[in-house]
Amino acid sequence: MSFVITTPLYYVNDKPHLGSIYTTLICDSIARYKRLSGERVIFITGVDEHGLKIQRTASSKEVDPQIHCDEISNIFIKSWKDWDITHNKFVRTTSKKHEFIVNEFYNRVKKSNDIYMGVQKGWYCVGCEEFKDNPDNSPIHKCPIHQKTLEWKNEQNLFFRLSKYQSEIEELTNDPSFIHPKERRNEIINFVSKGLKDFSISRTNVSWGITVPDNQNHTFYVWFDALLGYVSAISLDKKHPSLLDSINNGWPADIHLIGKDILRFHAVYWPAMLLSAGMKLPNKVFGHGFLTREGQKMGKSLGNVLDPNLLLSKYGKEAVRWYLLKDISLGCDGDFQDKRFVDIINNDLANTIGNLLNRTSSMSRKWFNNRVPNNVELTNDNTLKKFSNETVQNYIKHFNSYELDLAANVILKLAINTNLYLNDKQPWSLIKDEKNICTVSSIIYNVLESTRIIGLLLLPLLPDLSSKIDMQLGSLYKKDISWNEQLYWGKLKHNSTLPAPKPIIEKLEYE
Ligand code: MSP
């Protein structure tokens, strides 16, 4: 059994922006956490390369669409490398393997008698690649997300019989474990309760897409094509990819992590398509919030994006990861503010965690011959041990519920409390009297042990910072031993050597 997690497949109309990095970083942390917890993980990401939006982007640049797609896809691949994303699969919807799967899937759905020819009329947003209709039937001419004028379409298309799956989708969306967060589930329940309408799955005016096998002048609607990327990613057989191969190798997905803008596709259209094809449904769809800038969705079409490469070179991966994962609660929108960013990194990482490591390691080295103290007194002082054990439990509970911000916050709380413990115990005064040496040993041991656990808990969220902390404590983390077991109190070895302290994170300057 594998734990299968997916990011959306990103449109290649432009290079990645901070919004796409955001979703991918969340998945990366969850994937790292699951691996550390001993699960076999298939982490899928990739690009969505077909459709009108991409066709127009390529034509405006006067390049062949495939060349355009290759160029942007390579930028995505490079970017995921720069951000140390640990995906196992990178899907491209222009690959032969993917095309194979789309065709097979279409044939299955057709066999279920769920495809028919009809006329599609309506207002279309090319940015969303979606028909827009107002719930109250009043005219809508601008896309609320992209702020672009909608286009009127009236053409013969193939339709998928979504309406047939009304009761199954109602049951699915009513299940509290399927859509997260709760508020988003209510939006979808409301949408489904109005009655599901069949939707068109082909286009006659879009050449940049997969040709429908039995209707050569139609290409598949980009969403009908792209959603299948989650399945084609899993098929291992390159020569003869098949749905069965994907099923045998891990389908269904445990979680589709997406932005709230594309929840309907994942929580309604996609499950109905899978039901029609006789395939298992994903276990969960999590619609996270938007990153905003001045309150508006950050997006390529709106032109208000933050360049992730600039952030990366200016502040480094760990700072950006911490800000996005700790400061934004998964599911809520989050406004990116430079000053807040700098303050959070300086307070949490440099002042609280960095300082804690520095001061304890320095004290230990100075008073205990560059080592972890070994003459530890058995005391009744279990304050930190108790707090650390509670932290580990809460952290696991939060991570398992995809509350990454809360998981990050409990780590921070442990660091704050460890600093307070140190201030309260004042080992620097106690050490002045020889007879206190055992008490001081215990205090320092407790603080170092708490710091070791803080470092380990950071591993899925801030992998680089975590290994720097580990190095400063004498490289104690063992990859071949269960991570969960290493989170138990008391694993820090007495008398082990502590290397000379080096700052683990630089303070940032606000410009
Ligand atoms: N290609 C489709 C998805 C197909 S999945 C089979 C698509 N692509 S997209 O590039 O426009 O956006 C994909 C995702 O990027 C969003 O759902 C969201 O996860 C992420 N984000 C894009 N802009 C974002 C923000 N401003 N903030 C946070 N995430 C955002 O839709």
Summarize the structure.
Helix content is 47%, strand content 15%.
What does this structure look like?
The structure is a single chain. The chain has 511 residues and is an alpha/beta fold. It contains 19 helices and 16 strands. The strands form four sheets. A six-stranded parallel β-sheet has the order 3-2-1-12-13-7, sandwiched between helices. Helix 2 (52-60) packs across helix 3, helix 5 packs antiparallel against helix 6 (182-193) and helix 15 runs antiparallel to helix 17 (437-458). The protein is elongated and about 90 Å long. Bound molecules: 5'-O-[(L-methionyl)-sulphamoyl]adenosine. Residues 8-11, 19-20, 22-23, 48, 226-227, 229, 258-259, 261-262, 290-291, 297-299 line the site of 5'-O-[(L-methionyl)-sulphamoyl]adenosine.
- Which percent band covers the strand fraction? 15-25%
Mean pLDDT: 93
Bound molecules: 5'-O-[(L-methionyl)-sulphamoyl]adenosine
E-strand count: 16
Based on CA atoms alone, the radius of gyration comes out at 26 Å
Total helical elements? 19
Q: What is the helical fraction, as a range of percent?
A: 40-55%
Largest sheet: 6 strands, parallel
Helical/strand content category: alpha/beta
| Low-pLDDT segments, ≥5 res | none
Which sequence of strands runs across the widest sheet? 3-2-1-12-13-7
Q: What general outline do the C-alpha atoms trace?
A: elongated
| Amino-to-carboxy terminus distance | 49 Å
